[in-house]
Amino acid sequence: MLLNCYQNELVEAGCDEAGRGCLAGPVFAAAVILPKDFIAGQLNDSKKLNHKQREALRIIIEKEAIAWAVAEVDHVEIDKINILNASFLAMHRAVEKLSVKPEYLVIDGNRFKTYPEIPHACIVKGDGKYLNIAAASILAKTHRDEFMEKIAEEYPVYQWKQNKGYPTIVHRNAALTHGLSPYHRKTFSISKPQLALFSESEG
User: Which residues are recorded as binding a divalent metal cation (predicted)?
Assistant: First the structure.
């Protein structure tokens, strides 16, 4: 059973990102402050839920959260500052957009760049431990998926509606055959040796 938050003394926001391992598109992040009595039966790490469950939970979270915000860092910025720094920046932007200023942040993962004047804790697999991080994972994932489905209409050959920019066999083959789109991260290499390795690991 997931706990509501990491600590109870300060106003706490859970933070998570989506799209870090993708070949194309932005990395999205969300920050969420939940009420102490928040209950959502299916709420869990977004990776453990299906599309329909995530979309249903998104509606509940956006309606019932004390405050929530979603932000992104696009592929151009990712190529300039690297994906790790881009993930931190996206979370900072999400925190900055919150209508209620948090006094404490809990971050999914083991690394974070300190947000000015707000203490934080990094929680490995935090989206499976705390509801506010799980809620952030849902919002980051669903908002990013929505973005990828929209740009997929411009470039259907990569099948982003299905793979959301992740390095599936179809996506890699399309990139090797047709070249990169304007949305691809150019610092993420797509080579045939990598494709072969990926194929083996998928099989």
Answer: 16-17, 108
